[in-house]
Amino acid sequence: MWKRRINSVTAAVLFAVAATGCDSAAVDQEYAGGNTGNVESVLKTLPIDIPSPIETEGLVFMREEEKLAHDVYVVLYDAWGAKVFNNIAASEQKHTDAIKLLLDRYGIEDPVTDSSVGVFKNEVLAGLYATLVETGKKSVVDALMVGAAIEEIDIRDIMTELTDNVDNADITFVYESLLAGSGNHLRAFVSNLAMQGVDYEPQYLDDALYESIIESTNTSGNGGGNGRHGG
Predict the structure, then answer these.
(1) Which of 53, 130, 187, 211 has the greatest CB tally within 10 Å of its CB?
(2) Is 218 exposed, middle or buried (0-12, 13-18, 19+ CB in 10 A)?
(3) Lowest mean pLDDT among 8-17, 130-139, 216-225
(4) Mean pLDDT across the stretch 107-128?
(5) Domains (ranges, CATH) in the chain?
(6) Which residues lie closer than 8 Å to 33 by C-beta, 6 or more apart?
(7) Position 43 pLDDT exceeds 50
(8) What pTM value is reported for the model?
């Protein structure tokens, strides 16, 4: 597991807030359109509040975790040509860019000094990237399973930050936006797996939270599309 486990009841409430919040939906749609300008403009309206050491640690980790999702999806799109990977990779790029806005806002050193695919400062993430790509290249079903697992882990880690570590309004705003996007992405991968005849079961989230996410309405129109293999 990548980071920490969360309290499932609190997590379910937080996901419901993020999934239905107008700001979260609007921001993730901006990501889908390739524009972080809306995020930056909203951040300007929120107070400057120097992050705590644990908030700073979380931002640094999340910057590379979102890059990992992007990089894996880029490679798996090249391998299989399924549109879902290309669409969600574009969204993940906007997610990691949004974290970068917070790093710049507070003068925090950016761990991404090389934006090349597969390059990470965090050695754990570097190893996970290699494992996920190797697994995803076995078959299109394995690739979609990798995508679903990544989104589950993203949701878990963001919720951990929100429930345990974050007080700042600006960090909360960005994390809730990413949370809504990850819910959309998870639904897209699960839908694509269903097209392949696979009934996906959660690997990192408890059943109740997973079902609440899958049954939620897509919040931004950025589910990644239901492109079939080769689509």
Answers:
(1) 187
(2) middle
(3) 8-17
(4) 98
(5) 8-214 (1.20.1260.10)
(6) none
(7) yes
(8) 0.82
Query: Are 219 and 180 a contacting pair, CB within 8 Å?
Result: yes
- How many Å apart are CA 3 and CA 95, to the nearest integer? 18
Residue with tokens 């599309």: 225
Place of tokens 């974050």: 166
Q: Of 210, 123, 111, 107, nearest to 159 (Cα)?
A: 210
Half-sphere exposure of residue 4, counting CA atoms within 13 Å on the CB side?
Answer: 14
**170 residue type, one letter:** D
DSSP 191-208: HHHHHTT-----SSS-HH
Q: Yes or no: say if 95 and 34 are a contact pair by the CB < 8 Å rule.
A: no
Distances (CA, A) of 29 to 95, 115, 130, 220, 223: 11, 23, 30, 5, 10
pLDDT of residue 216: 87
Confidence tier at 36 by pLDDT (50, 70, 90) = low
Q: Which two tokens stand for residue 30?
A: 């901006």
